[in-house]
Amino acid sequence: MTDSPGGYVIETSGLRKEFRSRRGLRVAVADLDLAVPAGGVHGFLGPNGSGKTTTIRMLLGLARATAGTMRLFGEPVPNRLPAVIGRVGAVVESPKFSPHFSGRQNLTLLARSIGAPASRVDAAVDTVGLTGRDRDRYKSYSLGMKQRLAIAATLLKDPSLLILDEPTNGLDPAGIREIRDTIRGLGEAGVTVLLSSHILAEVQQVCTSATIIGQGRMLASGRVDELVGASTAYRVGVPDPVAARRVLAEAGFTVSAEMLVETDRPADLTQALGAAGIWLNELTPVRRDLEAVFLELTAGTELGGDA
Ligand SMILES: Nc1ncnc2c1ncn2[C@@H]1O[C@H](COP(=O)(O)OP(=O)(O)OP(=O)(O)O)[C@@H](O)[C@H]1O
Fold first, then answer.
1. Which residue in 46, 102, 172, 260 has the fewest CB atoms around it within 10 Å?
2. Which atom of ligand 1 is least distant from the CA of 29?
């Protein structure tokens, strides 16, 4: 739940971060307006170096913004961070667990140190699917299990916002799937999750909404189905593709080699063909996946430049 009047759990406005070094000024985040709605899993997507970690670090008070404003649960941060941080769980860097203790022992120690009830350990272990392996030593865990334990650690304080920075980095497909299932479960349980990632397929499967950034700037934001559906291509099947291609070109449509036409006016397409006496035997919408949208939007933004 959120106290924010706009219903957003995370809001930034004109957020900017500059790094100064001997090599000059590097703008890591520029004029970023982020709005993460309450509930569900929100993807925070961008190529390497696009400013995701820097944004998250600013939200958590780990880095100072050069300009702009930020709110968590409607409260301005970093000023009011102490008032809201108890409701925020975050996995930004690899947490330090003791390798010789079991996952459960690590969690129990942590729960004690933050004053969380011991009963939360059971709930956290269960939520991340570590039940049955929780009494094994941490050092025997796979990378995926270690990452799930890191998420379990953030759940000890029963957060309503969970911020995960590239939680599947370095995991194999099975590990990625485990984390994905865990995150999906958390979203379904009513936790708002900000999931930073550059793995598109995973985000598309788990996120309800997403923000795409490139070179620290917002490129697109909205519900995943809207982002993906913003552009729909149609596969056109006709008995005479050569004639159809000519008619469609004259009507102002661009037709790909595979007879795909990108348009939001399929009725105009059928009308143009029908008027020329060409009747369709197929008109299939082909939705792009998030990866295609992402690659298109972020083309040329992979290399962070010095300003
Ligand atoms: N402490 C720092 N000093 C100087 N430059 C920095 C610092 N931290 C980040 N940067 C630069 O800011 C830009 C954004 O980096 P950031 O780590 O936020 O990107 P990211 O989207 O999280 O990337 P990745 O997916 O690789 O983790 C990069 O160009 C990076 O080199």
1. 172
2. 14
pLDDT of residue 304: 43
Closest CA to 29 of 43, 40, 15, 39: 15
8-219 to CATH, choices 3.40.718.10, 3.40.50.620, 3.40.50.300, 3.40.630.30: 3.40.50.300
Bridge partners of 262, per DSSP, are 233
Answer whether 0.95 is exceeded by the pTM: no
Domain 232-287 indexed as CATH 3.30.420.40: no
User: Which tokens hold the place of 6?
Assistant: 């706009």
Residue 18 near ligand 1, beta carbon < 6 Å: no
Alpha carbon nearest to ligand 1 atom 5, residue: 19
For residue 223, the CA-to-ligand 1 centroid distance in Å is 26
What are the pLDDT digits (tens) for 168-212?
Answer: 887 888 888 888 888 998 998 889 999 998 877 777 889 999 999
Best of 19, 55, 91 to mutate for ligand 1, by most ligand atoms within 8 A of CB?
19
Cβ–ligand 1 distance for 214 under 6 Å, the answer no
pLDDT in tens, 145-174: 898 999 999 999 889 999 999 888 878 888
Q: Is 306 helix (H, G, I), strand (E, B) or coil?
A: strand
How confident is the model over 215-268, as pLDDT tens digits? Answer: 888 988 988 887 776 557 889 999 999 999 999 999 999 898 889 898 888 899
Q: Quote the ipTM score.
A: 0.96
Least Cα distance to 168 among 159, 153, 160, 178 occurs for 178
